[in-house]
Amino acid sequence: MTMRMAKRAVLVEPGAPIEIWDCPVPPASGGDIVVAVEMAGVCGTDHHYSLGEVELPGPMVLGHEGIGRVEELGPDVSTDYAGEKIEPGDLVYWVPLRPCHRCHACTVLEDTSLCPNLSPGRFRAAELPPSATYTEFAVLPAGMAYFRVPPGTPPEAVIAFGCAMPTMLHAMERLGGVEYGQSVVVQGCGPVGLAAVLLSRLAGAGDITVIGGPPARLKMAERLGATATIDIGAAPDSEERFAAIMAASANRGAEVVIEAAGKLPAFEEGMRLVARGGRYLVVGLWSAPGSTPLEPRRVNNANLRIIGSALSRPKHLHQAIAVARSCHQRFPLAEVVSHRFSLDQSQQALEALGRLETVKAVIVPR
Ligand SMILES: [Zn+2]
Ligand SMILES: [Zn+2]
């Protein structure tokens, strides 16, 4: 029997051009499955890795947002991680995180998003079978959750929000949701910001104002439910943006501010936009180290809450499919995918993202 080979896009070191390696993928054993990748989301985090803004443990296959067809089931596998029967040919969605279920976070806190051992599948040596997604074939080991994408749900509607929708679903859960009629400001309109807009709209928010850019992303934000947008290209001064938000809210600010900008200065600006009694949800600063001024007295005297949220848990992937399934006809979710690249064009995909040309880019490996 000839061994299946899989091309994969490897970041050897930060700043180096992406290399395409072709290495063997063994047959699925035990609780593993082999998946033929249909679409891999190109995420800002991939770009951060390529620039060296997030530490790289060694040569790494890029991509952590995947939709693929089940190619082969290991002998111990008959269902996805919600107990749905799966067979070769079915579409599944995954992010390559695998909680260890034997640590304080997993077991005592019951919060697998804080598991310190979450990423062994993602950071394994690049010549081993990848669970990462910039590859022709991925191997999902036992314990790495994946869920079936039902027929009739366009895969684009799921991968458009790659890791962003589960991240935002987790964040909204930690926030305690948006109440009917509440005013929301979303900082940033990449996929995380767009997911925040959609979920706020579905929750019945009143005004949803997005601060971000460029215009193509703001236009999409409007189609997903934003009621107003502020283009940071046209309003580069944060005082100007502050004045616009205050003018639109009778000087109150927003009851919920959601940071999805990924840039440290967004925090200070966002804190100023929170209304008295309001909540600030910080989701986008995962790879933005640094410190920033904060006036604790205002947190105290204005009854503010600041809520952080990192990554997601497997249930949020399942919920992300449910959102795509129920909303893709009402909202142009699939159209969020604006650019498609082949695996060989992974470098160009990251560069296009870096220039903010894309709303959402995907790699189509095969
Ligand atoms: Zn991502
Ligand atoms: Zn753990």
Automatic annotation (TrEMBL):
Q: InterPro entries, from UniProt?
A: ADH-like_C, ADH-like_N, ADH_Zn_CS, ER, GroES-like_sf, NAD(P)-bd_dom_sf, Zn_alcohol_dh
Task: Tell me the CDD domains matching this sequence.
Answer: MDR_TM0436_like
Per UniProt, the keywords (alphabetical) are:
Metal-binding, Oxidoreductase, Zinc
The residue ranges of the Enoyl reductase (ER) domain are: 15-363
Which Gene3D superfamilies does this UniProt record tie to the protein? Medium-chain alcohol dehydrogenases, catalytic domain, NAD(P)-binding Rossmann-like Domain
Look up the record and name the cofactor or cofactors this protein needs.
Zn(2+)
What domain of life is recorded for the organism? Bacteria
Family label: Belongs to the zinc-containing alcohol dehydrogenase family.
Q: Which named protein is this?
A: Zinc-binding dehydrogenase
